Amino acid sequence: MANIYDSAYDLEKAVRESQEFQDLKTAYEAVMADEIAKKMFDDFRNTQLELQQKQMQGMEITEEEVEKAKKVVELVQQHDQISKLMEQEQKLNVLINDVSRIITKPLEELYGAQEQQ
Amino acid sequence: MANIYDSAYDLEKAVRESQEFQDLKTAYEAVMADEIAKKMFDDFRNTQLELQQKQMQGMEITEEEVEKAKKVVELVQQHDQISKLMEQEQKLNVLINDVSRIITKPLEELYGAQEQQ
Ligand SMILES: [Ca+2]
Ligand SMILES: [Ca+2]
After folding, report:
1. Could you give the ipTM of this predicted complex?
2. Which residue of A14, A40, A51, A81 pairs with B7 in a disulfide if CB–CB is 3.0 to 4.6 A?
3. What is the pTM (predicted TM-score) of this model?
4. CATH code at position B87
5. For B53-109, how does the pLDDT look when each residue is reduced to its tens digit (9 = 90+)?
6. Do A110 and B32 touch (CB under 8 A)?
7. Rounded distance from Cα A22 to ligand 1 centre (Å)
8. CA distance B50 to chain A (A)
9. Can you tell me the distance from the alpha carbon of B41 to that of B26, in angstroms, rounded to the nearest whole number?
10. Cα four-point dihedral sign B100, B101, B107, B112
11. Count of structural domains, chain A
């Protein structure tokens, strides 16, 4: 019987060595090495985080804030390096979500089986 | 280089065969097999879910609802089989959280490294 932590570290290694992670790393480092790109990306991130936090706290988001967020998104989408980075982030998100679904399947089956009774 | 999905399925197997999951399964099946315990547990779950959803939607939670939730929690905590189940759920949650932290470490390192610059 394989130990859960051993298997988890094997999986971590697989993530780290994957083409998806290596491509993300390259894209991230390219953005961080470019002062203007880095600032645009940080602005984008901060705007997203701010809105998420407001939403989670049940605070109202003003029309101006929505407009500002849209503009920041448009700006980063026009930047080749940043849109490449966001594309790689998206790919890794899909991968991590798949992995999460796989490893929590035993729980889903246990709880789901009862649901159907 | 190990494939991510192969490693994820290995980890799923390790979760499924773990003592923690087997103990959770036993505890869950014991509650589900007892009509009264099952009803109490379902009530508890539904109350928790309802409050969570309201919170996420930024809706106000009344004092009566808080009181009701407290009573439901007290009730299930006094039930041996249900408190055993909740204890096992908690153990598996810790395990799954540990695993999540391990497999997302490459990402944390990549983003964290830049943060410190
Ligand atoms: Ca059920
Ligand atoms: Ca930074």
Report:
1. 0.82
2. A14
3. 0.83
4. 1.20.1500.10
5. 988 887 888 999 999 999 999 999 999 999 999 999 999 999 999 999 999 999 999
6. no
7. 43
8. 16
9. 15
10. positive
11. 1
